[in-house]
């Protein structure tokens, strides 16, 4: 458990921000306007970019439909480069095999 109240119990969503002084805390580290939900979005976006499938994202987030999980699967230029490199590698491997008669 990361966030607990004064008595060590888990915090409820209704008193979380006040109990941890969220607004003041994020402003003090230069992240004014950063919301707690942004942590969930960031974590799941990172999971998606690391290769988590839609089903895996659904499980992590507790969603029953693919629609919500797809929100986190942003296309990024970094991921585009990784996909292009993987495709290039596969083509080069097949071409080498074909030239050597192993196709």
TrEMBL record:
Tyr recombinase domain residues: 1-85
Name of a matching Pfam family: Phage_integrase
Keywords in alphabetical order: DNA recombination
Matches recorded under InterPro entries: DNA_brk_join_enz, Integrase-like_cat_sf, Integrase_catalytic
Gene3D superfamilies: Intergrase catalytic core
Protein name in UniProt: Integrase
Organism in which the protein naturally occurs: Micromonospora purpureochromogenes
């Amino acid at each position: 458990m990361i966030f607990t109240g004064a008595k060590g119990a888990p915090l409820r969503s209704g008193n979380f921000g006040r109990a941890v002084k969220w607004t003041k805390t994020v402003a003090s580290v230069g992240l004014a306007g950063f919301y707690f939900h942004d942590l969930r979005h960031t974590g799941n976006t990172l999971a998606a970019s690391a290769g988590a499938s839609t089903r895996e994202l659904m499980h992590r987030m507790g969603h029953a439909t693919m629609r919500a999980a797809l929100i986190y699967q942003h296309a990024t230029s970094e991921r585009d480069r990784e996909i292009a490199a993987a495709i290039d590698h596969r083509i080069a491997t097949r071409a080498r095999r074909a030239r050597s008669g192993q196709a």
